Amino acid sequence: MEIKLSIEEEGSGEREEVSVEVEEGSSIETVLQEAGVNPETVIVERDRKIVPKGEEVEDNELKVLRVISGG
Question: Which domain, by its residues, includes 56?
């Protein structure tokens, strides 16, 4: 199944569109890894709510927000 990711950089407004092919029933974490995105550095949204990365992918599109932190 093809999943489209819209990856946004927090604060910059930059957006990258990525598509990956994964098996049906894959977790969101698997989709992120296949797209070359470190799951530890992002938040995934569905219907404007944060989605746990261990959840199974239900939609063909995911909104991903890269989180920037510092000290």
Answer: 2-66
